[in-house]
């Protein structure tokens, strides 16, 4: 289990060393906030705030942002030549 944390820490550190992680993070928060504001505007009428709209919108924004994260990881695995090992493991 300790090896998994070491690999995870290394991958996250390598990802956040680049500018792309911060750009995707800002875009995700911006889109989620914007769509929550657009579709959750009825809180003034019912006088109760709910995060349900945010989580419904976060699902769809993650639907578009997660492939951009995995494309980078797959291209790095292909470049380093370890993609064959990943594809042969069950």
Keywords:
90 residues; mainly alpha
How would you describe this structure to a colleague?
It is a single chain. The longest helix is centred in the last third of the chain and has 29 residues. 83% of the residues lie in helices and 0% in strands. It is elongated, with a radius of gyration of 18 Å. The protein has 90 residues and is mostly helical.
Question: How would you sum up this structure in a few lines?
Answer:
The chain has about 90 residues and is mainly α. Helix content is about 85%, strand content about 0%.
Topology:
Layout: H1 2-16, H2 19-39, H3 43-46, H4 52-80, H5 83-88
Helix pairs in contact: 2-4
Strand content: under 5%
Low-pLDDT regions = none
Q: What's the helical proportion of residues?
A: over 70%
Pattern of helices and strands:
HHHHH
**Rg estimate, integer Å:** 18 Å
